[in-house]
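REQUEST FORM: STRUCTURE PREDICTION
Request ID: SP-0412
Submitted by: Lab K.M.
Chain count: 1
Length (residues): 86
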Amino acid sequence: MVFLSGMKSEYSGSYEKRSNTYLIIKADPISSETVTVTTDSNGMYEVTQEDGGLLSILFLYAAMIFSLWWFWIKKRNITERSSGAQ
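STATUS: Completed
RESULT:
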């Protein structure tokens, strides 16, 4: 299975650079990989490949969910409890 996991665009005057990152999950999910295709306004392109993309994405999402809980939800609950006690 192939998933588009990221897009990035950079502009500077008339120069444009775009990159798309794809997550490729194979039959063995541990051996998944990410492929990034970068193109620029001159028609040049570059392809880079990295192993272990699924584990990196899972770690990133876990870190984002923990950060959301720690800095927003937990903080709101503490604030609501302290304002309700007054």
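NOTES: The chain has one helix and four strands.
Reviewed by: T.R.
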